[in-house]
Design goal:
It contains three helices and nine strands; from the N terminus they run H-H-H-E-E-E-E-E-E-E-E-E. The chain is an alpha+beta fold and 168 residues long.
């Protein structure tokens, strides 16, 4: 026998590189599958609604509130200064405004704010840190009679005018 045959017979299989190279592919697939399963099980499906039928029936009520705001000529101009959001409202002057910041794809990021009146037609509130992306800003009066829904892209530009659904 020559010297190479003696070395291959005396070396155990786990000291050879080829079995490990061949096992690396299936091992990587098993790890990737476990990570994928963990991600799927630990995050919520934000776009799926359990009560989709009831939500569909409520759309007509929401559209009626938006039509009422358009009939009354209610418009809003939204601005942001650092962590402060300011809404200049024309056509109505309630004591406060309620704002609902709705993320377009992740319901877990949604925020509700109460904007206090600081001057006639001007409302302000602290803006919590929000991830960038498309947001719907739903503004409504405390009684819930009307609402307007401009669309925002965060981080907010200097101004984002909004009138009913036309928004930015």
């Amino acid at each position: 026998m020559n010297r190479d045959d003696e070395r291959s017979e005396s070396t155990p299989w786990y000291r050879e590189p080829w079995p490990w190279i061949l096992m690396a592919g299936p091992a990587a697939v098993i790890v990737a599958g476990a990570v994928t399963y963990w991600l799927a099980a630990s995050t919520a499906d934000g776009l799926v609604a359990d009560d989709y039928y009831k939500r569909g029936l409520a759309i007509n009520q929401e559209l009626g509130r938006e039509r009422l705001a358009a009939q009354r000529g209610i418009e809003a101009r939204v601005t942001r200064e650092r962590s402060l959001v300011r809404v200049a409202l024309a056509g109505a002057s309630p004591d406060a405004l309620f704002a609902h910041l709705v993320h377009t794809t992740r319901a877990g990021f949604d925020q509700r704010l109460r904007l206090a009146r600081v001057a006639p037609g001007v409302y302000e509130s602290e803006l919590p840190p929000l991830p960038p992306g498309q947001w719907r800003l739903i503004l409504q009066d405390p009684r819930g009679e009307w609402r307007i829904t401009p669309t925002l892209t965060l981080p907010l530009e200097t101004e984002a005018p909004g009138k009913g659904r036309e928004g930015t």
